[in-house]
Amino acid sequence: MKRKVYSVLCLSALIGITAPATAQVDSQLSIHGYLTQGYGIANGGTFLGVSESGTGDYRNAAMQFRYALTDKGNVTLQFSHRRLGQSPVVTDEADVKLDWAFVGHRFGDVDVRIGRTPIPAGIYNEVRDVGVVLPLYRAPFNFYLEGAFTSETVDGVVASYDVVPAAGWGLEFSGFAGGWGMINRMTIDSSYAGLAVRVEQGLGGQFWLTTPIDGLRAGVGASRQEIDQGDFAGTWKEWHASVDGTFHWFTARAEYRVFDLPILDYAAYYGYLGLHATERLTFHGQADFADLEYAPLPSVDFNDAYTAGASYAFQPNLVLKGEAHFTKGYWADAPVIDFTSDRPASVNYVVISLSTAF
Amino acid sequence: MKVLKVRKVTLWLALAGALFGVGRLHAQAGFQVIVNDANAVRSMTAAEISDLFLRRTTQWRDGQAVIPVDLPDRSPVRDAFTVAIHDKSTAQVKAFWQRQVFSGRQVPPAEQGNDQAVLALVQANPHAIGYVADGLRLPSGVRRVDILGGSVASGSAHEIYTVATVDLLPELVSSPAVRYPSSLRRDRIEGDVVLKFVVDPSGRVDAESIEVIESTVGMFERPAIDAVRRSSYRPGRFQGRSVPVEVQQTVRFRLSTDQ
Asked: Looking at CB atoms within 10 Å, which of A37, A108, A279, B106 has the fewest?
């Protein structure tokens, strides 16, 4: 019943917020928000809450309040809501949580944000829940690991600096330091459960190089963090590389990432191609892979995912998407399988979603 | 009953139009960029205006905060402004702002409902900059800004610098081979063309700014302009920032080197 009430509220909001919002120029307060409502149904098991019986309890939403303290400083709050069906990673997640709370200030060419702040990592980490920005319902799962093992935000400080080193080139450096909470997905008594852990001494950075070819950029980044609970306790190290090309007729993206954990190494990589048939209609294709090194086992082909989809932007802030995912590996919620002994499971699922933002 | 059906059909058509953007098939519109009369800025490049509206530049040269003002995203004047100034569609700029907003970096300029609202705001605020339909009569206290050309969104200055006022001069990085007119080559005629042009903050030559200052033979002018237009530079710098700089360059046509 509670979920139904939320669905109704969200759908009402969807209709309400698609009307263009016009802020007053003399107002220091700006309000923005987004909502993606999805329906998913799977075949062969359950993948991140999408089950064989189907679920409409699938959405991301947020409201953001930004107050300009001065022309260089602001304070920003964002509240978010996320549902992933019955996925164990959101079982203990509050229906509405404080997503961001930070004070930002620009010192010359350096932007500094202090508080709970989005982590700049890869192409999508800062916007991984924003349906109108993402080409598909979610950022590539093997790489960004929605719901577990990663975080969108840091409780600490983020600084970024832009520079133009030469004609047509651009360089952006972002660094972050602090801690965050996250869920580590565990297998307990033949079922999956989420274990909330706290990360401390998180430290990372990222470079983006913008090239003279309009729309083409490349980036590298790395981070380290300390976790003192559960099977994955210890020092985590991570690095990633990204290429992002957004052009008139197509968008091509690829990223590669390695997690070096105390007990295993996890590598993920994907390639994405979007063909812009018209300004509104885009066809999407994505191949997303994960490999695991867990001694003394040989390298495990942990998860392969292929996605085909299409999106139609009625307006830039109202996008309808349909996508089919074909996965084979060990990331499914069901069946519960052990990568050290069982064969990988094939779970296919479809998600239809409508995204809006203002 | 028929009336009801017609109303229903009209309603559905209106809804479909709103969703699919049928109503956005506007005629081409022109625009003019405006500032308050108290603002010292008389002219800017397209790139500089783009930076102000994308909030890459947030202050005027006197240190005051820039207040950019947009028209609604359904406005044909905004479409024209966006294509000419940002070299992007309104949808692409909206996508840029969605990413900026929801990564917590920046928020877009406030929108005013129509030209009159933009005029009133710019008239009342000495630090505001906006744009309205071309040809619209401007009230007292509001002034049109000349657009010097250039469409690359980078840089930060608000005026064209000269070689005497920058800290670092633009430096030629690459230039194509100059085409030697065949008739002049056959007649073994050599010559020079002196050109004046603006190197924008991205290091590209603003094609609209190229001007012939001096030429020994008229037929050398076109190949000289073509060569300069396709040249790239390391941009001039002032106080640590890339800025547009007006420079002069002599293109020499010599039979020995074809330059």
From this structure: A108
Cα–Cα distance for residue pair A304/A302, rounded to 1 Å: 7
- pLDDT higher than threshold 80 for residue A54: yes
A270 in Cβ contact with A143 (< 8 Å): yes
Flag if B98 and A111 touch (Cβ within 8 Å). Answer: no
Distance CA B211, CA B209 (A): 6
Asked whether the beta carbons of A48 and A64 are under 8 A apart, the reply is no
Alpha carbon of A128: minimum distance to chain B alpha carbons (Å): 9
Report the sign of the C-alpha dihedral through residues A128, A129, A135, A137, in that order: positive
pLDDT score at A55: 95
Query: Which amino acid, residue A313?
Result: A
Half-sphere exposure of residue A43: CA atoms within 13 angstroms, side-chain side: 7
Can you tell me the mean pLDDT for A4-29? 50
pLDDT tens digit sequence for A69-122: 988 899 999 999 999 998 877 777 889 999 999 999 988 889 999 999 999 999
Instruction: Give me the helices (H) in chain A, please.
Output: 2-17, 141-144
**B245: nearest Cα among B145, B149, B174, B164:** B164
Angle, CA of A302, A306 and A308, to the nearest 5°: 160
> DSSP strand E in chain B: where?
31-36, 43-44, 67-70, 110-111, 128-133, 142-144, 146-147, 161-162, 171-174, 191-199, 211-215, 232-234, 236-238, 241-243, 245-253
Token code pair at residue A339:
């990568």
DSSP one-letter code for B66: P
Q: Angle A160-B94-B99 (CA atoms, 0-180°, nearest 5)? A: 30
Q: Name the residue among A351, A358, A337 with its Cα closest to residue A41.
A: A351
pLDDT of residue B8: 55
**CATH classification at residue A131:** 2.40.160.10
In chain B, residues with a C-beta closer than 8 Å to the C-beta of A22 are: 72, 110-113
Q: What angle do CA B110, B111, B112 make, to 5 degrees?
A: 125
Domain count for chain A, please give it: 1
DSSP state of A90: G
Domain span including residue A179: 2-357
ipTM of the complex: 0.85
**Cα B190 to chain centroid, rounded:** 37
Confidence of residue B153 (pLDDT cuts 50, 70, 90): very low
Write the CB contacts of A69 (distance below 8 Å, at least 6 apart in sequence): A28, A75, A103
B74: confidence class by pLDDT, cuts 50, 70, 90? confident
DSSP per-residue string spanning A39-57: EEEEESSBBTTB-TT-EEE
pTM: 0.73
Q: Does the beta-carbon distance from B112 to A22 stay under 8 Å?
A: yes
A164 touching B, CB under 8 A? yes
A133 CA: distance to closest CA in chain B (Å)? 7
CA distance A33 to chain B (A): 8
Cβ–Cβ contact A276 with B under 8 A: no
